[in-house]
Amino acid sequence: MDRLPHEKGFHVSWDQLHRDARALAWRLQDTGPGETGWRAVVAITRGGMAPAMIVSRELDIRTVDTISVKSYNHQTQAEPQVIKAPDMDLVGDGTGVLIVDDLVDTGRTLEVVRAAMPRAHVATVYAKPQGKPQVDTFVTEVSQDTWIFFPWDMALQYVKPYHGADD
Ligand SMILES: O=P(O)(O)OC[C@H]1O[C@H](OP(=O)(O)OP(=O)(O)O)[C@H](O)[C@@H]1O
Ligand code: HPA
Ligand SMILES: [Mg+2]
């Protein structure tokens, strides 16, 4: 958590992520591209891959591609760049394509992704206020000063009991 000073932490377990990604799929059913269905899911690597797997399973979308955006040069935030594009013959201008990421924070990643596929539908599991305008569908909003910790970045560990903690 060395990027920004965040006031709060929101810790997401695998179980919670599974439920929230399923809730996202549930929402997307009603906002989908109608009878033709989604043509493909594009996951934004790497955080979008686990949610994209769950969403594509729930919506029975078998075609899944990836896009990779690099936003940081070591610790310095730089102009985000697409370093791995999806198959452009497949995704075209994004019509019928569902883009999935774990969260939107500032929205800079999604700005770049949207520029590549302007007609795609963008979905994230979590959203912070600054990035919300970049997202079409999301499940849970957290405040801008909250850092979201994902299960792949955490481990179970021992916690001292309250009793005797000050000894
Ligand atoms: O809205 P933004 O401010 O652009 O931030 C959101 C992006 O940042 C994180 O990815 P990161 O670039 O850390 O890479 P990762 O998915 O490989 O962890 C997160 O998974 C989003 O993709
Ligand atoms: O709150 C966050 N959690 C994890 N990764 C992130 N990348 C940007 N914001 C976040
Ligand atoms: Mg990411």
UniProtKB/TrEMBL annotation:
Question: Which Gene3D superfamilies does its entry note?
Answer: 3.40.50.2020
Q: Name one GO molecular function term.
A: hypoxanthine phosphoribosyltransferase activity
Q: What is its main location?
A: membrane
Does the keyword ATP-binding feature in the UniProt annotation?
no
Residues bound to GMP are: 105-109, 147-148
Q: Which CDD domains match?
A: PRTases_typeI
Q: Where in the cell is it found?
A: Cell membrane
Spell out the protein name for this chain.
Answer: Xanthine-guanine phosphoribosyltransferase
